[in-house]
Amino acid sequence: MIANLPLPLLLLVFILAAAAVVVSSIKATGLADVIADRTRMGEALAGGLILGAATSLAGVVVSVDAAISGDASFAFSNSVGGIAAQTLFLALADIIHRKANLEHAAAEPANLFQAVMLIVLLSIPLCAMAGPDMAYFGVHPASILMFLAYLGGVKLTQTVSEQPMWRPVQTRDTRTDEPEDDDEKDRSALRPALIFLALVAVMGLGGYVISQVGGSLITRFGLASSLVGAVITAVVTSLPELVTTLTAVKRGALQLAVGGIIGGNTFDTLFLVASDVSYRDGSLFHAVSGTDLYWLATGLLMTAVLLGGLILRQRAGPGRIGIESVLMILIYCTALAVQFTAA
């Protein structure tokens, strides 16, 4: 059993699992871009649906495993803490994109809609937590609503991507989604898709190992579940999003970078659905702490700031980041201060 390993060996297993997840995600980024071009799906949609869901797999495994073990706070905080951390990664990507403000250059209607969709999905758990404590067959009705809202949002995102009713103003800093050359885009997407699925399996296995190590740290050292979930496992399982975002920015696939984060965060809200189903002691939403709720509010606030930045499209000069990136960094740092104070 992983949980019974000596501490040095336990940490080594944790590092190896995290490395496996990160390396797999690096290779998956390039494949997602190829799949997007060969299927004519587009970078923003592929980033949100294919890459976002794949790189989120390790995190969902952590949350579900924690919920099955009865630790609601661990399951919940891993999900919402990951959303906050991944949104922060866009600010870091903005720093390394030296040509212009990332949110300005990656103008894409589908990303705007996914951000709105994410705000809606994060608001539903807030309503559930403020409402009466109820569960049918151990599942809160809000979980069903979130799942249906996600499916509906994905369909609408595809419509926005394929048939946009408006387009962003093109400037010299705007980076458009350009597919492969004509002699490449007609090639089959089957082989890259199969390799992509194999990498997804590696990320899922890595997520399980990370969950076991996180649970062991909580038990051995009496750490708060919200601390381990929101700051340790959430950040580690979110490293694929950091790597894929920075890799996509360096490749010039800016819509893929932004879409991967927002889409991944949207998919991450389903962690709560899966965790609520897996948690057998009633409603997950009424079994968490105020600190967990704070991380949910942090993710919601950071998403709203990001959406504002995508709409504003501030034209910061070369080497300067947008005001939305500065605000997201400050909001996240404040959340960390609150977490360590509460712990």
Automatic annotation (TrEMBL):
Residues covered by region (Disordered): 165-186
Keyword check for Membrane: yes
Superkingdom per UniProt: Bacteria
Subcellular location: Membrane
Membrane topology: Multi-pass membrane protein
Keywords for the protein's UniProt record, in alphabetical order: Membrane, Transmembrane, Transmembrane helix
Transmembrane domains' residue ranges: 6-23, 44-68, 74-92, 112-131, 137-157, 193-211, 217-240, 252-273, 293-312, 321-342
Main location class: membrane
Pfam families: Na_Ca_ex
Residue ranges constituting the Sodium/calcium exchanger membrane region domain according to the UniProt record: 10-127, 194-340
InterPro entries attached to this UniProt entry: NaCa_Exmemb, NCX_ion-bd_dom_sf
Keyword Cytoplasm applies: no
Designated name of the protein: Sodium:calcium antiporter
Naturally occurring in which organism (per UniProt): Loktanella gaetbuli
Lineage: Bacteria, Pseudomonadati, Pseudomonadota, Alphaproteobacteria, Rhodobacterales
